[in-house]
Amino acid sequence: MKNNTQNLKKRPITSIFAFISFFYVVPTGILTHFGEHGLEQFHHMIGATHWTSSMIFLVSAIIHIILNWKAMKRYMFTEIEIISGFKKEFVIVFMAVTLLIILVTVPFLLSPTN
User: Fold this and answer.
1) How far, in Å, are 13, 31, 43, 71, 87 from residue 75 at the CA level?
2) d(CA 112, CA 109)
3) Which of 15, 38, 56, 86 is the most exposed, having the fewest neighbouring CB atoms within 10 Å of its CB?
4) Residues 86, 73: contact at Cβ < 8 Å?
5) Which residues contact 32 (CB under 8 A, 6 or more apart)?
6) Which residues contact 11 (CB under 8 A, 6 or more apart)?
7) For residue 13, with 0-12 CB atoms within 10 Å meaning exposed, 13-18 middle and 19 or more buried, which class applies?
8) Per-residue pLDDT tens for 36-91?
9) C-alpha count within 13 angstroms, C-beta hemisphere, residue 104
């Protein structure tokens, strides 16, 4: 059997990894789009920082999901709502993220390639 104190240490560490790496992903991702406007000499450093923090975020997010799967499953599916599916919060967030991704990516699909 697993010791519960080990799980208590893994969850916060994984969550903190994801949280802190997210704060590197966002600004470096924004800065990569402004590489032509005065940040040329830092372009490779910004790109490397963005890629590394993205990989840390991705791995820690996957581990976070694995460690918290039971709690997440319990939250998304309750005994009463098994028939109706997901909770309304999950559906709202899923739809909002999907809509934002569509709004951002569709203009690239519609623009002619150079």
Assistant:
1) 22, 36, 42, 6, 8
2) 8
3) 38
4) no
5) 43, 46, 47, 50
6) 64, 67, 68
7) middle
8) 666 677 778 888 888 999 999 999 999 999 988 888 777 766 655 555 566 777 77
9) 6
Tokens representing residue 80 in the block: 């009463």
Which two structure tokens, joined as six digits, stand for 62?
Answer: 């996957």
Q: Is the pTM of this model over 0.70?
A: no
- Scanning the structure block, which residue is given the tokens 């450093």? 45
For residue 82, give the nearest of 90, 91, 72, 74 by alpha carbon: 74
The string of DSSP letters for the chain reads ---HHHHHHHHHHHHHHHHHHHHHHHHHHHHHTTTTTT-GGGHHHHHHHHHHHHHHHHHHHHHHHHHTHHHHHHHH--TTTTTT-S-HHHHHHHHHHHHHHHHHHHHHHHSPP-
Token pair of 46, please? Answer: 């910004």
